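Hey,

Quick one before I head out. I ran the complex with nicotinamide-adenine-dinucleotide overnight. Inputs first:
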Amino acid sequence: MNAATIIDGKAIAATVTDRIAEATKRFVEETGAPPCLAVVLVGKDPASAVYVRNKGRMAEKLGFRSIQKTLPAATPEDDLIALVKDLNGDPSVNGILVQLPLPNHINESKIIELIAPEKDVDGFHPINVGRLGVGDFEQALLPCTPAGCVVLAKSARNGDLSGLNAVVIGRSNIVGKPVAQMLLKENCTVTIAHSRTRELETVVRRADLVIAAVGRAEMVKGGWLKEGATVVDVGINRVPAPEKGEGKTKLVGDVDFESAAAVAGAITPVPGGVGPMTIAMLMSNTYIAACRQHGLTDLEKAAR
Ligand code: NAD
């Protein structure tokens, strides 16, 4: 039986954040102030609150300044618009992230489009989406989860994805579409599969690299994979775990880890794979945004 290499997202994320922490010291020497990330949370969604807290903690750990603005769920859209405009206009703020989802009465696209593209560290602004589309990585801020997937895939392939058949399962704006474009930039031959794809198993079996971003627990089975494939599992699904006790749950990915690990060459675990990379890439984006805003091209390269 093949024993797949487990791609250690935590360790790889730590190498990224260590590099940024080092580079941040030089940034502070150069500019007199650290990069600053502002995170805005509207409402009390428990999962969002945990994400926001983790982002703030990581920013501080790396030596950034971290601002957290928490607004009540009933905040009028105009108040959020005013806050985003304030943050856009504040030269000491380098990165702005409005935690999604927003309450139903607030138009998400409107808010995303309001964030200054050069401060859009989530990479969701149409300007950044367009820059990714045309391959302008010099100016784009890239969305964090897909960028993290590419780093993980490259780590398993000696840094080179060129010529690989990549199959991305999922076509969301947050993961599937942007990761497909990033893989094109890495010279992969890319197929995007989705809910209407016919004979998904056959499509997946052609892949040297599989990125699963579906949101369906353990959907991709080992039997679907080509021997030796690299598998990056983006899915985060909470499922019952009676083995841990009554009413207990656990997190699993979109890939059936056990059967897949028997066939794959390398695979990311859930948790401990893509998740830690997402936050590391957010820190990377904040650092890059800060360097660009100060015209520090050499320092920007230190984050890569
Ligand atoms: P989404 O619901 O927006 O998109 C899911 C995609 O899967 C759709 O494009 C759909 O066409 C496709 N799909 C659905 N059923 C399918 C099927 N049976 N066969 C093939 N394709 C199918 O989800 P998303 O926002 O892209 O997230 C996907 C998963 O990744 C979720 O589990 C989410 O929690 C997780 N996620 C993780 C991170 C992280 O940091 N690790 C970040 C973002 C999303």
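The CA atoms of residues 241 and 249 lie 5 Å apart.

Talk tomorrow,
K.
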